[in-house]
Amino acid sequence: MAHLSATPVQAEASCRIPDPAQLRDLSAPQLDRLAAGLRSFLIERVCATGGHLGPNLGAVELTLALHRVFDSPRDGLIFDTGHQAYVHKLLTGRAGRFGSLRQAGGLSGYPSRAESEHDLVENSHASTALSYADGLAKARQLSGEQERAVVAVIGDGALTGGMAWEALNNLGAARDRPVIVVLNDNGRSYEPTHGALAHHLHTLKSGKDAAACRNLFTDLGFTYFGPVDGHSTGDLEGVLRRARTLNQPVLVHVVTVKGKGYAPAEEDEADCLHAVGTVDPATGRSRGGGLPTWTTVFGRALAELAAERPDLVAITAAMLRPTGLYPMQQRFPERVFDVGIAEQHAVTSAAGLAMGGLHPVIALYATFLNRAFDQVLMDVALHRLPVTFVLDRAGITGPDGPSHHGMWDLSLLSTVPGLRVAAPRDAARVQELLGEAVAHGQGPTALRIPKATASRDIAALARMDGIDILHRSPHRPLEVLLVGAGPLAGAALDAAALLEEQGIGVTVADPRWVLPVNPALTALADRHDLAVSIEDGVLPGGLGWALDQACQTQAVSTPVEALGLPRSFIAHGPRTGLLAQAGLDAAGIARAVQAAHAPRPPATGSSFAAQEALR
After folding, report:
1. 3-state secondary structure (DSSP) of residue 95
2. Where are the alpha helices (DSSP H) in 314-408?
3. CB atoms within 10 A of CB 402
4. Which of 237, 238, 239, 241 is nearest to 252 (CA)?
5. Which of the residues are catalytic?
């Protein structure tokens, strides 16, 4: 195949470069062969393990030029976003570990300070590199080390983020503080980049002599070089060397093709090969089982609701397909807004839409909502506006690692007055709870869904004041109440079976709306010896914490045992394995219950009557 210009063995051999300085001794033909080898290596390895393929195929020559011109780690190379740093990893001695990419205990899919001194930051939240560079350049100026270059590589739409413009505002104003900003312009994040900036970059790319023209970057104080062919190592080196000699803020506008050299990725208009699972390298097609994901289920449900409700609008922060908004965008394009990688703006813009009489649905990764907490609190909740947040990748995400696990949203959102949070346990509940969320007009709502195949539908035995009872142990006292949040309801049911084998009576409940705590849940806890909450977030401020607080407020003496994720940065690995390590599988839940459960005295007539009423 044309795109496999070298065998995997040849590719790996060509990538084993113990010292990046050796790159400077390569001739132009040798560099071309190395670039081909790097691409072949990436295609074979990333298709086998999963990871970010398109962004890295587009950054091969750029990364080679950076390492030939600059002396890493003495010169600081900062990649934004970190998912375009695979070639950087290969050139800094990590080719031999690529078989473990994004696997438990293996190579991270993002820059990692623990892996190499060449990785300065572990950023995988976009639009941060320029601020890191600003601070690092200030530190080097104060310490008299300005001969050490600071280079920030920003691309894949990250320049659409507001934080990047805050940094540009500071960087451009300091004429005596050299920072080189390399704008890797491939015209995309996941989808083609939208907005005024995208139009401006297009104008610069189409101009005959853009370097001599006044533009946005020169107005901000930068010397502008570009547009430069991002797939010509020679052209890139020449411009980067000029930029280094200026000792002032410089922006180098590099034009690249996402997925360069791999036909399935270059022709992928939907950008499905931006990030891949395991795929066939010959075709770029997924080797997955084809079962619907939580995201797919949400996307279909939202499109159906949008057909029923003309006031429903949706907002994406440059992630139309990854967050499930594509079906609605296809049916109602005028009602779906892509604001770029700008979560803060997305939330306050949603507030404005709600003030205008519409009901906005903002679909974000749960970990990215952290960036817009102030806007949720002050711009939406303070005004009691009906905005629905759909938090994709809530809980453990798996191979993406600590920056992408959606662990903190419940803790943050539990402090927001008037905000209600739902966690569907299965596909049927996604549609049900989404409908309830957008029907709520008295304030904001949120819906948490994980990164996984959607759970099998779990029917309820009964619904009690909004709480679904999923299981009751027959002919046993009501000893333990298991409260499973969202998809962990399935693990709670499996744990109940294990506990019943030990003679422990169990009720399994799904609160559906996890925050604030439904008073019916504390009443249910009052009928048991022990209540155990099970959630895929950190414990402070989460469901278990809230249930315990509610029990104390309502003078319910039943102890609450909260099971959740540790308050630490959890490494990458399989979702199921990481949940098991945290004790959130059936066996772990059963062990926790057995450790916390104390047999209760025989029931009196009155308490037994209460138990029987529950049955």
Report:
1. helix
2. 326-331, 343-355, 366-369, 373-374
3. 18
4. 239
5. 258, 343, 371
Q: pLDDT per residue over 545-563, tens digit each?
A: 999 999 999 999 999 999 9
Measured from the Cβ of residue 573, the count of other Cβ atoms closer than 10 Å reads 18
d(CA 50, CA 451): 15
Cα 478 to Cα 525: distance, rounded to the nearest angstrom: 10
Closest CA to 446 of 430, 422, 473, 429: 422
> Which stretches of 445-517 are DSSP H helices?
489-501
Give the residue among 511, 589, 577 at the shortest CA–CA distance from 550. Answer: 511
CA dihedral 303, 307, 310, 315 (to 10 degrees): 10
CA distance 222 to 215: 10
Give the dihedral sign, CA 408/414/418/421. positive
Q: Which of 175-179, 216-220, 441-445, 606-610 has the lowest mean pLDDT?
A: 606-610
State the virtual CA torsion across 603, 606, 608, 614 in degrees, nearest 10.
-140
SS3 assignment, position 80: strand
The pTM score is: 0.86
Where does residue 17 fall: left (phi above 0), alpha (psi -120 to 50 degrees), or beta otherwise? beta
Sheet hosting strand 359-365, strand order edge to edge: 336-338, 312-316, 359-365, 388-392, 445-448, 420-422, 513-515
Q: Which residues contact 90 (CB under 8 A, 6 or more apart)?
A: 15, 17, 38, 41, 42, 98
- List helix spans (H) across 186-232: 196-206, 216-219
pLDDT tens string 198-254: 888 888 888 754 555 678 999 999 999 989 999 999 999 999 999 999 989 999 999
> What digits encode the pLDDT tens for the residues 266-301?
776 655 566 667 777 767 777 666 679 999 999 999
Alpha-helical regions (H) of 363-488: 366-369, 373-374, 409-413, 427-439
Q: Fill in the amino acid letter for 223.
A: T
Upstream peptide bond of 178 is cis (omega within 30 degrees of 0): no
Find all residues with CB under 8 Å of 186, minimum gap 6, and list them.
55, 58, 155, 156, 255, 256, 257, 258
Measured distance CA(607)–CA(613) in Å, rounded: 10
